[in-house]
């Protein structure tokens, strides 16, 4: 089993546009996913458009209306807006997929041997529905498509490509590189098991050593959480320019309370002093964005956060506040380790405010990972 | 001037797919934006695909190569990967758009009276390039398309729709509703000035009173920042289950140091006690997720954060940790105001961990907004 994605088309809330796009997609593909436009409001026209396109009727389902009402009651809402009734209409012949997260149910439709899936737009709603549906798929004669993701951290995309290109070309292995602020992924798709997996792994490990994260590596915050749990260490953060982003990323992982004590977002200098004990003289002499301040922040976070490990971050995220000596993008990251060891790293990140903050957060986590392995 | 977006097509890194999608789009539209696939790696094939489709040659540009090298030098990288040379190739007849954020330059191509724009994929890179290009557009005879965004906060999409539907139907005004965790937007597009703007504004103000945010309202964190600046108030946050998200959102806005003191991400109970002074007896008797704990957190944040205003958040983001009395999604939000006033609000949010945390953060900001206006 397994399918290749041929393309993805986005159209506006116009019935005719939706009908044309879906009927074209049906000509080219076995399965068509249609997402969004199942909401209660009058611009949600997908349900009607698909019914028209397939020339099928819409039926009001009492059972679905009951479920929608229960969802509102649970949230303490007694007067259910009348327009939510639109969401209880089902296309003739459809199999309903229950929506456990939101109100709009999904539908599976068969037409001339092909499958259409009507799904709500919010990813949190449609993901579990697609997973539920995928379980019902029978294996076909073809071998399963498997996608192997090899993770590389802490290097720019072009350096990764430069190092791997000739190896993969010689072996005739097709690959895709995906870059994100977290990591670089080398993707290899194969029908059935990928036979050269050990050769590729060996090559990548030799080539990237500690930057090679393995196959299907967990996300960086999960990796760090696992390392901290293994070693029985607790972490606390001191953040300035990232404003809480590092704490947010670390607590994206359920169960992070096992190792995450907290984060001191000391945006103002007064809190850097009062909460973390950065000396007034340090702030005066070197400024808040300095190696010295990062060091005191890392020390303060460890002590006040009752932690074994700390990360400190101070920098200039911009767009204003930069100078010739301290340009926008200048960031100091401190890492506090057991036995009173502290390491401060200096970076100058390109990009806008959002990008600088994001890169800073992931760079801090990547630095910590290297100290922990 | 002004253009309607007809559709958006996403295809894989396959030359033939790209060529087919772009040549189809050219038949239907005046302007085609092509984004992504201009990177240095071998799966970046868009440049080659478009050159083939238009039957034009590719030229190596010394001037662009120079700029790419300078970008690397500024980042302290001396050995520039050879593969970045791919990014210095320009399609015959193209006008180059400079990329001030990344390495890949953009191109404007004219073909049979139509315009193609080749742009890099990262939004941070392509947005300024499109804005630069848009400035060069000459006015046509048609009136400009203007989009009016009316903001409504703190209400679900279906309630908003229910309240406005008959008004807009009667007036014959076409609108779209956009829902995000931050706010509901009613969008009205018009060729030239929208004449009924005052009637619509009057209606929405009467209908939604303090929930009506006005036309093109700033984002919620900006609105709050403006209110705090106007009143000369400083804010500090105490976060538990959001892990730093509220601080992150408030500091997305440049200049937030004018009013944002910091955030105490007290994820562990020991930090709730030691940093914010939540009494041990409160944690023991009522638990960390309680009205009482939220109150002490709001008090502690105000005091320790040297602030006039505070927000406190404690809840169960899940997926585990819930019970019958305290289900996943239960959140207490505290608001600390001047003159020692504190208000605690209880919520039960549906959805997964990510959604609960996001809704909690924006609900806290929305609550604060109402107390500040």
What does this structure look like?
The structure is a homodimer of 373-residue chains. Chain A has 373 residues and is of the alpha+beta class. Chain A folds into 3 domains: 15-134, 3-Layer(aba) Sandwich (Molybdenum Cofactor Biosythetic Enzyme, Chain A), CATH 3.40.980.10; 145-217, 2-Layer Sandwich (Alpha-Beta Plaits); 221-372, Maf protein. Chain A is built from 12 helices and 16 strands. Chain A has helices at residues 15-28, 46-54, 62-74, 123-135, 157-171, 197-208, 220-231, 245-250, 269-274, 280-285, 291-304, 353-372, and strands at 7-11, 31-35, 58-60, 89-91, 95-97, 106-111, 114-119, 145-152, 176-179, 184-191, 212-215, 235-239, 260-266, 309-315, 330-337, 341-348. The first copy, chain A, has a 5-stranded mixed β-sheet, sandwiched between helices. In chain A, strands 2-7-6-5 form a 4-stranded mixed β-sheet. In chain A, strand 9 (176-179) and strand 10 form a beta hairpin. In chain A, helix 1 crosses helix 2 and helix 7 packs parallel to helix 12. The model of chain A has no long low-confidence stretch (mean pLDDT 93). The interface between A and B is large, with 81 and 81 residues. Strand 13 (260-266) of chain A pairs antiparallel with strand 13 (260-266) of chain B, so a sheet runs across the interface.
Total E-strand runs of chain A: 16
At the third CATH level, what is the topology name of the largest domain in chain A? Maf protein
Q: Domains counted in the coordinates of chain A: how many?
A: 3
Mean pLDDT of chain A: 93
- Distance linking N and C termini of chain A: 38 Å
Question: For the record, what CATH class of the largest domain in chain A applies?
Answer: Alpha Beta
Report low-confidence residues of chain A grouped into runs of 5 or more. Answer: none
* CATH H-tier superfamily of the largest domain in chain A: CinA-like
Share of helix of chain A, binned: 25-40%
Structural class of chain A, by secondary structure, is alpha+beta
Strand content of chain A: 15-25%
Computed CA radius of gyration of chain A, to the nearest angstrom: 26 Å
Largest beta-sheet characterization of chain A: 5 strands, mixed
Order of helices and strands of chain A: EHEHEHEEEEHEHEEHEHEHEHHHEEEH
